[in-house]
Write a structure and sequence with these properties.
This protein is mainly alpha-helical. The protein has two domains: about 55 residues, no CATH class; about 80 residues. Helix content is about 90%, strand content about 0%. Helix 4 packs antiparallel against helix 5. The protein is elongated, with a radius of gyration of 27 Å. It starts with 6 loop residues before the first helix and ends with a helix. The model has no long low-confidence stretch (mean pLDDT about 80).
Length: about 140
């Protein structure tokens, strides 16, 4: 199941990226004044940095286990996507092989058919091996 992005989240990302862009521009234009201000008030900078560091401290184990759960939940969808792309490429390969065969190039058609069939088998085998190897 694919998730969609809501308009609210889309607008939030656009506004944040715009704010970051203009912050970088302001920093590039006024960097000399910025460094001069930092030299005059280093304690304010240290207090601000300490507040940010303590505010964003999180449990690392919880983050890793959450990432593991999310990746495992996306695996089946990714496998279906990979098999769908493989099916489309198999159709393209079949058309290419058909054109070669009808063009009188039978040896090249055999090579193309073997290559496309091998790549499709490879996609199925890779999905199965990864699933069984990692216990998904």
């Amino acid at each position: 199941m694919l998730f969609f992005i809501s308009w609210g989240r889309f607008l939030t990302v656009i506004l944040l990226s715009t704010a970051i862009y203009y912050t970088i521009l302001l920093f590039l234009f006024y960097r000399n004044k910025f460094f001069e201000w930092i030299r005059k008030k280093p304690t304010l900078l240290l207090l601000g940095t300490a507040a940010v560091i303590t505010a964003h401290a999180q449990d690392g184990n919880q983050g890793i286990s959450q990432a593991n759960t999310m990746i495992r939940s996306y695996f089946d969808t990714g496998t279906q996507l990979m098999l769908g792309i493989g099916a489309v490429l198999a159709l393209v390969g079949a058309v290419h092989t058909f054109k070669l065969w009808n063009g009188g190039h039978q040896q090249e058609a055999y090579k193309a058919a073997a290559g496309w069939f091998g790549s499709c088998v490879f996609l199925v085998v890779v999905a199965t091996v990864i699933k069984s190897f990692f216990g998904l």
